[in-house]
From TrEMBL:
<dbReference type="GO" id="GO:0005615">
    <property type="term" value="C:extracellular space"/>
</dbReference>
<dbReference type="GO" id="GO:0008270">
    <property type="term" value="F:zinc ion binding"/>
</dbReference>
<comment type="similarity">
    <text>Belongs to the peptidase M14 family.</text>
</comment>
<keyword id="KW-0378">Hydrolase</keyword>
<dbReference type="GO" id="GO:0006508">
    <property type="term" value="P:proteolysis"/>
</dbReference>
<keyword id="KW-1015">Disulfide bond</keyword>
<dbReference type="GO" id="GO:0016324">
    <property type="term" value="C:apical plasma membrane"/>
</dbReference>
<feature type="signal peptide">
    <location>
        <begin position="1"/>
        <end position="20"/>
    </location>
</feature>
<dbReference type="GO" id="GO:0098552">
    <property type="term" value="C:side of membrane"/>
</dbReference>
<feature type="active site" description="Proton donor/acceptor">
    <location>
        <position position="385"/>
    </location>
</feature>
<dbReference type="InterPro" id="IPR057246">
    <property type="entry name" value="CARBOXYPEPT_ZN_1"/>
</dbReference>
<dbReference type="InterPro" id="IPR000834">
    <property type="entry name" value="Peptidase_M14"/>
</dbReference>
<dbReference type="InterPro" id="IPR003146">
    <property type="entry name" value="M14A_act_pep"/>
</dbReference>
<keyword id="KW-0862">Zinc</keyword>
<keyword id="KW-0121">Carboxypeptidase</keyword>
<keyword id="KW-0645">Protease</keyword>
<dbReference type="Pfam" id="PF00246">
    <property type="entry name" value="Peptidase_M14"/>
</dbReference>
Length: 449
């Protein structure tokens, strides 16, 4: 489509001179362990806490369990010590990532030097924030359906924008919300939000499903919530997760925005220590990024049918709640729709997703946006954990962006289609051939009777 092919970007100016060079992961390894006994679990918890190892899965020491996957990043100087200790305790392990820095470099530096010839926006690579800002501007300029809106400001006073995709209509419509990039290092998430917008705009005329739901639904897409964190993950620490709020006179940084919402805030799966990856902030909605989302969603909540929030990794479609194992009232329907979405996703490349409530199939956590959205009355609320299963973890190579986005697109449109059919059962204003024949047969039955 001309709109995208013709969109040129002066990438040369935007490439920062220094990428991810402040913190190196040279020789760091990610180990995969499945502890077999409680003693092993205890030893691993002890090891991880005394050496302050970076837990990739699960997020919290107390969530390490026998029989369940454990992924930890071990800094190079500690690799031998950790392996010796594992051997001593007869804990078997596999090296998932042999050199984290190598992977980081591959997904940023090499690839970005090859992209000097701009033939439009390249959706199959990761983009730094300046390019995403520019992309939003261009998308709005080039499509009649898209408008860019101000959502709020970050801790470091950057602007957060979302895109609204709306087809002109004179009847009231409902809203589908999707946000990406609440966790900085999960780069595949913003890549998906951008892919999603592109696909909708490219296909809404030719694809009957998209055409149909756009008559009833407006799509609100927030490509990057955690703008400060995302930039920090590009410029300083590739594996940064939280926002960049300073605490204790700047001796520690960052709140986990997905622990900061007002849904059983601070009750489970969080830390009150600002050095933790799951620090929940000084109070519910303490962070400007959280408040920005809350303000808009609160204002529109009676019209929002579906709240999707996109993360990585692990390959899950997660339903509420994370903070309690008590299922939501519409649990059965939430599960069925998610299963349908996972099946559609699998149909593309065979990627298998697990479906279920967060507290039951992943870990318990409070203060997530997904729980909050459901609690304030948004009926369909899901977290997507995109690829992969831990082979590359948070450093998913760029050659997986396209397949990941393609399959995820099928899952997301399955959900949106379901929601559309449910709330707009009459369907489109225009008669489709199906509804026309149904209509005629009703008339004939009536005449005949
Ligand atoms: N994006 C998720 C989070 O930040 C990751 C959770 C599951 N996967 C994992 N590797 N821990 O909570
Ligand atoms: Zn996440």
């Amino acid at each position: 489509m001309w709109l995208f092919l013709g969109m040129t970007f002066s990438l040369g100016i935007l490439i920062p001179g220094k990428l991810c060079s402040d913190l190196q992961y040279d020789g760091d390894q990610v180990l995969h362990i499945v502890p077999e006994t409680f003693q092993q679990v205890q030893h691993l918890q002890h090891l991880c806490s005394t050496l302050m190892l970076d837990l990739w899965k699960p997020q919290l020491l107390e969530d390490i369990r026998a029989g369940e996957d454990l992924h930890i990043r071990v800094p190079a100087p500690l690799v031998q010590e950790v392996k010796d200790s594992l051997d001593q305790h007869m804990i078997s392990y596999k090296v998932l990532i042999n050199d984290v820095q190598e992977l980081v470099d591959e997904s940023v530096l090499k690839e970005r030097s090859q992209r000097q010839v701009p033939e439009g926006y390249n959706y199959t690579e990761y983009h730094p924030m300046e390019e995403i800002y520019e992309w939003m501007t261009q998308i709005e300029k080039n499509s009649e359906l898209v408008t860019q809106h101000y959502l709020g400001n970050t801790v470091e006073n950057r602007t957060i924008y979302y895109l609204q995709i709306s087809q002109p209509s004179n009847k009231p419509k409902k809203i589908i919300w999707m946000d990406c990039g609440i966790h900085a290092r999960e780069w595949i998430a913003p890549a998906f939000c951008q892919w999603f917008v592109k696909e909708i705009l490219q296909n809404y005329e030719s694809d009957a499903t998209i055409r149909r739901f756009l008559q009833n639904l407006d799509l609100y897409v927030l490509p990057v919530i955690n703008v400060d964190g995302y930039i920090y993950s590009w410029e300083a620490e590739r594996l940064w997760r939280k926002n960049r709020a300073p605490y204790m006179n700047g001796t520690c940084y960052g709140t986990d925005l997905n622990r900061n919402f007002n849904s059983s805030w601070g009750s489970v799966g969080v830390s009150f220590n600002c050095t933790s990856e799951v620090f929940c902030g000084s109070g519910p909605e303490s962070e400007p990024e959280t408040r920005a989302v809350v303000q808009l969603i609160e204002q529109k909540k009676s019209d929002i049918l579906c709240y999707l929030t996109v993360h990585s990794y692990g390959q899950y479609i997660l339903t509420p709640y994370g903070s309690t194992t008590t299922p939501p009232s519409n649990n059965e329907e939430l599960m069925q729709v998610a299963q349908k979405a996972a099946a559609a996703l699998m149909g593309k490349y065979g990627t298998s997703y697990k479906v279920g409530s967060t507290s039951l199939i992943l870990y318990s956590n409070s203060g997530s946006s997904r729980d909050w959205a459901h609690m304030i009355g948004i009926p369909f609320s899901y977290t997507f954990e995109l690829r992969d299963n831990g082979t590359y973890g948070f450093v998913l190579p760029p050659d997986q962006i396209q397949p990941t986005c393609e399959e995820t697109m099928l899952a997301v449109t399955t959900i949106i289609d379901y929601v559309d059919q449910k709330y707009f059962p009459g369907g489109a204003v225009m008669l489709t051939s199906g509804s026309l024949s149904l209509c005629l047969s009703v008339v004939f039955t009536w005449i005949a009777s």
